[in-house]
Write a structure and sequence with these properties.
The complex is a heterodimer of chains A (501) and B (447).
Chain A (H helix, E strand, L loop, with lengths): L1 H9 L10 H11 L2 H15 L11 H4 L3 H25 L4 E3 L2 H9 L20 H9 L30 H7 L24 H14 L2 H8 L8 H8 L6 H16 E3 H12 L11 H12 L17 E3 L10 E3 L25 H14 L14 H15 L1 H9 L4 H10 L8 H14 L3 H13 L1 H6 L3 H7 L8 H10 L4
Helix pairs in contact in A: 9-10, 10-11, 10-19, 12-14, 12-15, 13-14, 14-15, 16-17, 16-18, 16-20, 18-20, 20-23
Chain B lengths: L26 E5 L4 H8 L3 E3 L8 E3 L2 H7 L10 E2 L6 H4 L1 H19 L1 H5 L7 E4 L3 H10 L5 E5 L9 E3 L16 H6 L5 E5 L6 E2 L2 E13 L4 E16 L8 H4 L3 H4 L12 E3 H12 L1 H22 L11 E9 L5 E7 L9 H18 L23 E2 L2 E6 L30 H8 L10
Parallel strand pairs in B: 1-2, 1-3, 3-4
Antiparallel strand pairs in B: 5-8, 6-7, 6-8, 9-10, 10-11, 10-13, 11-12, 11-16, 13-14, 15-16
């Protein structure tokens, strides 16, 4: 909208001639940078909007085309809501309440150090944890699929029993060609013993150019080989088309005002989650205050509701007392429709490394959520959805490490039970920060979470020798407990390009 | 020079008796501390602890022992000890400031203002009570400023407080009117008053300082090594100038933080140097942060140069310093203090491993085994030539002149861009480097 305003304004400029109006406006837009901004905005829309479908398809098909997946998601949501409501009743805490003036003033003063608050959160429990969600995924079945065949070598050994399409390694080698052994990578070819002239210096030079040109599509392509530390913040903001214009800052301030005025039950869940996860992390404890500032605002951001048109999930609705079922008295709860679960704050924590202006940090996080993270905790058939990731992981393992998979199954240590928590968080909190950021470079670069499943399989491949020795689930978990020393790019590269097919 | 000997003469009682000129079959060490250094020494192959008054080849002592015994000890040529006799010229706050001020003056006289300004990395400091009047002049010139009082000789944050009013430091007022009796009774402890840095660089509202390790093996000529690892220590509460009484806000020593009411040992309030460097680079860009680390290098070199002529150089001595550096919001580094006995107690498993590696590499560089030339069979792997620019996690920072990463030879001499051989906060692949370093040379005879 702003670009059309700008275009309208430019009509008054002396260099615009009536005879060559079309050309002149176009040149003006290019010179002023507005053409690029328009391009980036369109590119952004192409990313989030689902592919055009049949005109007669109902809107829920845009959310999720498979009926049995939709049904499973609906049931899961019912359970979550029930859990939330019962906590509400049990504790006698309202879902939302207006803060008295004194409390509002106090919170405004303490806005930059909410972490110093130590409210009594012992009565609050997280609404659900990833392992609860895993059980739901394990029980998914396609009613049209005849799975009554005898167990054979072709059958799937893993926990996910739905017939979704996945890719094999030859297909992935094509798709992820930029990660091949002969292409330079950050995370491999910037290592100390590799002279920077071979790859790093040139790659950084190109990166600076991409940032100067403000080219969103180029930034995405560039990110496939990794972003240099000094340029990453700008590159990610560019790829996500996340701006920090006055209107973004104002939007953030409005959300902040919302936090000050009203207290939501989910706020306590956020506090508890931050205290339990990020605050105890060696890398992220410093950013505790930022996490509150982002997540509390996030809960109140109704702009997030837009993403439900392509998310299989539906925001929970609450009804004004006595008017249950009457749509006019329905209120989306929380306002952004997203109920946080245990570990949710870890989606934000790594971003604190790159952005320290709250409104900018918020803007980037929100875009990351509505493009990628939401798929990690909703039931859908999307290739970036958690169901596909789980299946992809299991199939990769079964195809390329069958001995390991069989062994782990026999000792009651289904691999997915260990890898699930990594994938739900896109590895945040499990890898060291610099490695995590290199992984997320590729998520942005390939616009897909598939690489997360590949990494999970690669980790098992890397520790296969030790895993073959273990005799219980607990010991398998111990072998895979500490991933902080792993270097992700060599692991992924070897798994995709050096595995014998 | 080779001497004919067997690998360990056993006297009539079966124990190894040392004859004159005999090859040492082990390194005898004495250790006055009971933390990480004990473990490192114990695990070193061929090193044996001696107790009480036994003769030693290597001594990791505390400064108290040094003060009492150094002057009475005769040390043979190969013997090594971990402190310089008068290290306090660098590590006592009042003496360090005195030496730095004097060095700065000399520099200004000899090389001009700009060169002297490179020494402006410590805040205005005055010793009390001796420089009380000078201090008051400065104090009055900057009304409303905050100052920090530190006892010259204590550590771990003890005795430190902040003040903004002169009345808070009346005890240190140099007052000629006190009666002789009074003066004898109450000897006021020597303190320094230092301008408090009111705009420290904050990460998410928290103040932090840096602990960096510098190893000096000689002052004349000056030879100093910089360790790649280190850490940033965070205050556990948010920074604010309104609560200057809250020492937990301002002091970042782990020792102080441990006593804070909300200290959670599980939480950990340290970041590895690599983590910090990456964070700063992501926030400010590579060039800016490279310039910052260059400024930090400057602090080490200048501070060592300022005491070069004062420290009693002794070939037996080496010293591992713990430098405390503070960054301000303009990314200017400030020297807070230098520690001759940086804490070797580990606060976590990660910290323990870092300190073990630090100490191991320190011992590699001291290379006391190298002085056991007579018995090459004993330590066949440790063959330092003395020309190394890197040993494990240490980079040679200064060797009677700046040390560069690039090899300086006839071809490169004309080139303008030499980079300093320092890698603070960079990747520390020490194991790999040590393996390469300590490989026997091809063709070398091994009997």
């Amino acid at each position: 909208m702003l670009s059309s305003l700008s275009a309208a304004e430019c009509l008054h400029r002396p260099e615009i001639q009536l005879e060559s109006l079309k050309e002149d406006v176009r040149n003006f837009l290019k010179a002023s940078g507005w053409e690029r901004k328009l391009q980036n905005a369109v590119y952004r829309e192409l990313h989030v909007q689902p592919l055009p479908s049949h005109p007669a398809a109902p809107p829920e098909h845009a959310k999720e085309p498979l009926a049995y997946m939709r049904k499973a998601q609906v049931n899961w949501e019912k359970r979550i809501l029930k859990s939330l409501n019962s906590m509400c009743t049990e504790l006698g805490v309202p879902l939302a309440r207006k803060r008295p003036a004194v409390e509002q003033k106090e919170l405004t003063n303490k806005w930059n150090e909410m972490g110093t608050d130590e409210p009594d959160l012992s009565r609050f429990r997280p609404v659900y944890a990833p392992k609860d969600f895993l059980e739901v995924l394990i029980s998914l079945r396609n009613p049209n699929h005849d799975s009554s065949e005898e167990a054979s070598a072709k059958s799937h050994w893993g926990l996910i029993q739905v017939p979704l399409h996945d890719r094999d390694i030859p297909q992935m080698r094509e798709a992820y060609s930029e990660l091949s052994l002969t292409t330079g990578q950050l995370g491999i070819d910037d290592h100390t013993h590799v002279p920077p002239d071979l790859f790093e210096s040139e790659h950084t030079r190109i990166g600076k150019k991409v940032v100067n040109e403000q080219d969103c599509a180029a930034a995405q392509q560039y990110s496939r080989q990794g972003c240099p530390t000094g340029l990453r913040a700008d590159l990610w903001a560019l790829i996500l088309n996340s701006t920090n214009e006055p209107e973004d800052v104002m939007h953030y301030e409005q959300l902040k005002a919302g936090v000050i005025h009203h207290d939501l039950l989910v706020d306590n869940l956020i506090y508890k989650d931050v205290k339990l996860t990020a605050s105890n992390d060696d890398y992220y404890f410093v950013f505790e205050d930022f996490l509150y500032q982002v997540l509390l605002c996030f809960s109140r951001d109704t702009a997030v509701l837009e993403h439900f048109s392509y998310n299989s999930a539906t925001p929970p609705k609450s009804y004004i007392q006595g008017k249950v079922g009457v749509e006019e008295f329905a209120v989306v709860y929380p306002p952004n429709g997203v109920i946080p679960f245990h570990g949710f704050s870890m989606y934000v924590a790594p971003l604190c490394f790159l952005y320290n202006e709250p409104s900018k940090l918020y803007s980037v996080f929100r875009e990351m959520y509505v493009r990628y993270f939401f798929r990690l905790h909703s039931v859908s058939s999307s290739t970036s959805g958690i169901v596909s990731l789980c299946l992809q992981f299991e199939r990769l393992l079964q195809t390329h490490l069958p001995q390991l998979f069989y062994h782990l199954r026999e000792i009651g240590a289904q691999p997915l039970r260990i890898a699930f928590k990594w994938m739900v968080r896109a590895f945040s909190g499990y890898l060291s920060t610099d490695q995590l950021l290199l992984l997320w470079d590729r998520i942005l670069g390939y616009d897909s979470l598939e690489i997360v499943a590949v990494l999970a399989a690669a980790v098992f491949a890397f520790r296969a020798e030790n895993l073959m020795e273990v005799t219980s689930l607990t010991s398998a978990e111990a072998v895979l407990a500490d991933l902080s020393t792993l270097k992700v790019m060599p692991l992924i590269q070897i798994f995709l390009f050096a595995t014998v097919i | 020079m080779s001497r004919n000997k067997t690998a360990g003469y056993k006297g009539p009682y079966g124990y190894q008796k040392r004859r004159e000129g005999d090859g040492r079959s082990c390194v005898r060490y004495k250790c006055g501390l009971t933390n990480t250094i004990q473990d490192v020494l114990r695990q070193r192959p061929g090193w044996m602890e001696v107790k009480d008054d036994g003769e030693w080849d290597f001594n990791w002592c505390d400064v108290g022992w040094l003060r009492e015994n150094f002057d009475h000890s005769y040390m043979e040529e190969h013997v090594r000890i971990c402190h310089f006799r008068n290290h306090y010229e660098l590590t006592r706050k009042n003496l360090m400031v005195k030496n730095l001020k004097r060095y700065r003056k000399t520099l200004e006289r000899e090389a001009g203002r700009i060169e002297a300004s490179k020494c402006d990395f410590f805040p205005r400091t005055f010793e009390l009570p001796s420089e009380y009047h000078l201090f008051v002049e400065e104090f009055k010139r900057s009304p409303g400023s905050t100052w920090i009082m530190k006892p010259v000789a204590r550590s771990q944050g003890k005795g430190i407080f902040l003040f903004q009013k002169l009345k808070d430091i009346m005890d240190w007022k140099k007052d000629g009117s006190r009666s002789e009796e009074q003066r004898d009774e109450t000897q006021v402890e020597s303190y320094v008053a230092q301008r408090y840095i009111e705009n420290p660089y904050l990460i998410s509202g928290r103040k932090f300082d840096l602990r960096v390790y510098v190893l000096v093996t000689s002052y004349i000529p000056l030879k100093a090594w910089l360790y790649r690892d280190g850490f940033a220590r965070f205050s556990s509460t948010r920074f604010s100038l309104t609560s200057i009484d809250d020492q937990y806000v301002h002091l970042t020593n782990v020792a102080v933080q441990k006593t804070a009411p909300d200290y959670d040992p599980e939480k950990g309030c340290k970041w590895q140097m690599q983590q910090l460097r990456r964070y700063l680079t992501a926030r400010h860009g590579t060039e800016t942060i490279e310039a910052l680390f260059k400024d930090i290098d400057n602090i080490f070199v200048r501070s060592l140069q300022s005491v070069q002529k004062v420290i009693i150089n002794d070939k037996h001595c080496f010293e591992l310093y713990g430098y405390d550096i503070l960054l301000d919001q303009d990314l200017k580094p400030w020297l807070i203090e230098v520690n001759a006995s940086p804490s070797l107690t580990a606060s976590s498993q990660e910290d323990y491993e870092m300190k073990c590696c630090l100490l191991e590499d320190t011992l590699h560089i001291v290379d006391i085994e190298g002085s056991c030339q007579e018995n090459p069979l004993l330590f066949p792997d440790l063959r330092l030539t003395g020309r190394e620019k890197r040993v494990g996690g240490y980079d040679l920072m200064w060797n009677d002149g700046p040390v560069y990463r690039e090899d300086v030879n006839l071809e490169t001499l004309g080139s303008a861009c030499f980079t300093a051989n320092t890698h603070l906060g960079c990747v520390n692949d020490r194991k790999k480097q040590l393996r390469q370093l300590l490989k026997p040379f091809p063709g070398k005879k091994r009997i």
